């Protein structure tokens, strides 16, 4: 967490991320480069022109197999007071608690953490502290239950 | 919403569309405007604010009240953001994730706490954690809890719009113990929402400008201009008779009383007149009645 840059940009009504997402990109690039150096390159993200809609993919390695999932989210108008809700459409309905469209549930641990760190947290934090831990808990469980299969199978 | 409105034949419709159809059938004279979208996106939020400002009974005028019946924190924050900016009074409602508690709130920008002034309030659930299969997770849904919360929300709306009773700023509902806590919360001068802080300043100025209203309670003395005949009002029933006619009042907590009392039976009750025992049979009595 210490390695992730804190947000400083203030967004406006039509551009909640601020600067069309410029600062977000900078923080994310730094985070991804650090991941690559640590041999833990696990996601890519890009946005639309306005920086209001983001999409990409994430990977999770389990039993030497690499699983890939497409991810997407909107920047909510109340960002950064509220965190974006990440969706993994292909996993919709597969976990015990999932919201419509495949939005993953991050309530118990992540949301209070985000709330306590407003407005310093940004998309890099969302990935590192939100999506990352979720994948670590849910993917092995889904594989064990036979709910997801590796694409090579 | 889907637990209160949705019927099987409406499968496929959005919740708000199903709600409109169901409600229109109940009362065709109500006007509806239905939108089904995520209010937290930048584009939809703009439309949402526009409808608050212009969607009144007369198009172009603002609405009177917003009732939030959404089921997530983000949507509530979005509504809060809109209402703080527009100075729009609104009521918020919710049911907990485990379905055994709920609440309603009245939010007046600048006057009461806004939704962002404090972290989300939680009505104590008093659930034994040992009964949970997964730590901290007890997702459940009870239309009964939702019905209760919907009822107290609308009740609060009626009191607010029609000016009767006491409008609650906050009313909680703990279904496990049937506990209904109430309270009011002042705004946070360091609220993270700039518009909330602005509204607080506006409210303070408005309050300072108002003259101080002192409530004097005066007991009205009933006096008639003249009373030539010296008429007095005296009870027809004597004190003793009144005592005898009332029964004991049970020991009740505040707010509850009996509709009437039943006098206790006295030991030496005077024998009351009854009909004498008769030799005549039932048929004979029936015939007697017919021949009167």
Automatic annotation (TrEMBL), chain A:
Residues in coiled coil: none
DNA damage as UniProt keyword: no
Any Gene Ontology biological process: protein K69-linked ufmylation
Gene3D superfamilies named in the record: Ubiquitin Conjugating Enzyme (3.10.110.10)
CDD domains the UniProt entry points to: UBCc_UFC1
Region (Disordered): 1-22
Keyword terms: Ubl conjugation pathway
Keyword NAD attributed: no
GO cellular component labels: cytoplasm
Biased composition (Basic and acidic residues): 1-13
MF term (GO), any: UFM1 conjugating enzyme activity
Family: Belongs to the ubiquitin-conjugating enzyme family. UFC1 subfamily.
Function comment: E2-like enzyme which specifically catalyzes the second step in ufmylation. Accepts the ubiquitin-like modifier UFM1 from the E1 enzyme UBA5 and forms an intermediate with UFM1 via a thioester linkage. Ufmylation is involved in various processes, such as ribosome recycling, response to DNA damage, interferon response or reticulophagy (also called ER-phagy).
PANTHER family referenced in this protein's UniProt entry, alphabetically: UBIQUITIN-FOLD MODIFIER-CONJUGATING ENZYME 1
Name the UniProt record assigns to this protein: Ubiquitin-fold modifier-conjugating enzyme 1
Species, as recorded: Alligator sinensis
UniProt lineage: Eukaryota, Metazoa, Chordata, Craniata, Vertebrata
Automatic annotation (TrEMBL), chain B:
Pfam families: ThiF (PF00899)
InterPro entries: ThiF/MoeB/HesA (IPR045886), ThiF_NAD_FAD-bd (IPR000594), Ubiquitin-activating_enz (IPR035985)
Residues annotated as transmembrane: none
Keyword Lipid biosynthesis annotated: no
GO biological process: protein ufmylation
Domain of life: Eukaryota
Signal peptide: none
Coiled coil ranges: none
GO MF: ATP binding; metal ion binding; UFM1 activating enzyme activity
UniProt keyword terms in alphabetical order: ATP-binding, Metal-binding, Nucleotide-binding, Ubl conjugation pathway, Zinc
Gene3D superfamilies given in the database record: NAD(P)-binding Rossmann-like Domain
Keyword Isomerase included in the entry's annotation: no
GO cellular component, one term: cytosol
Limits of the THIF-type NAD/FAD binding fold domain: 2-192
Family named by the database record: Belongs to the ubiquitin-activating E1 family. UBA5 subfamily.
Protein name, as recorded: Ubiquitin-like modifier-activating enzyme 5
Organism: Alligator sinensis (Chinese alligator)
């Amino acid at each position: 967490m210490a390695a992730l840059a804190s947000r400083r940009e203030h967004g406006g009504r039509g551009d909640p991320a601020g600067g069309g997402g410029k600062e977000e990109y900078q923080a994310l690039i730094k985070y991804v480069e650090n991941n690559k150096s640590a041999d833990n390159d696990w996601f890519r993200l890009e946005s639309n022109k306005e920086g209001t809609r983001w999409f990409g993919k994430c990977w999770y390695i389990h039993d030497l197999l690499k699983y890939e999932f497409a991810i997407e989210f909107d920047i909510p108008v109340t960002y950064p007071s509220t965190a974006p809700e990440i969706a993994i459409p292909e996993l919709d309905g597969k976990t015990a608690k999932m919201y419509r469209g495949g939005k993953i549930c991050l309530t118990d641990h992540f949301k209070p953490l985000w709330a306590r760190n407003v407005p310093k947290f940004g998309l890099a934090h969302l990935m590192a502290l939100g999506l990352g831990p979720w994948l670590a808990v849910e993917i092995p469980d889904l594989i064990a239950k036979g709910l997801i299969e590796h694409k090579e199978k | 919403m889907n637990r209160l409105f949705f019927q099987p034949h409406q499968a496929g419709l959005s919740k708000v569309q199903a709600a409109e159809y169901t409600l229109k059938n109940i009362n065709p004279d109500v006007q509806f405007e239905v939108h089904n979208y995520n209010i937290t996106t930048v584009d939809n939020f703009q439309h949402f604010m526009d409808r608050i400002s212009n969607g009144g009974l007369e198009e172009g005028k603002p609405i009177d009240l917003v009732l939030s019946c959404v089921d997530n924190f983000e949507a509530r924050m979005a509504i809060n953001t809109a209402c703080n900016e527009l100075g729009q009074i609104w009521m918020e409602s919710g049911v907990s994730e485990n379905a055994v508690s709920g609440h309603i709130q009245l939010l007046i920008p600048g006057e009461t706490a806004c939704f962002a002034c404090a972290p989300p309030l939680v009505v104590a659930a008093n659930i034994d954690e040992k009964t949970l299969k997964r730590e901290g997770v007890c997702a459940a849904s009870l239309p009964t809890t939702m019905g209760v919360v919907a009822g107290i929300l609308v009740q609060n709306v009626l009191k607010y719009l029609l000016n009767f009773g006491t409008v609650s700023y906050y009313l909680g509902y703990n279904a496990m113990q049937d506990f209904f806590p109430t309270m009011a919360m002042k705004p946070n001068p360091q609220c993270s929402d700039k518009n909330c802080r602005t509204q607080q300043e506006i409210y303070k100025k408005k309050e300072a400008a108002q003259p101080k209203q002192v409530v004097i309670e005066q007991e009205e003395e009933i006096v008639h201009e003249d009373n030539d005949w010296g008429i007095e009002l005296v009870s027809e029933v004597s004190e003793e008779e009144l005592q005898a006619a009332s029964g004991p009042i049970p020991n009740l907590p505040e707010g509850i009383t009996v509709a009437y009392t039943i006098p206790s039976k006295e030991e030496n009750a005077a024998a009351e007149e009854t009909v004498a025992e008769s030799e005549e049979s039932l048929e004979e009595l029936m015939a007697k009645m017919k021949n009167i």
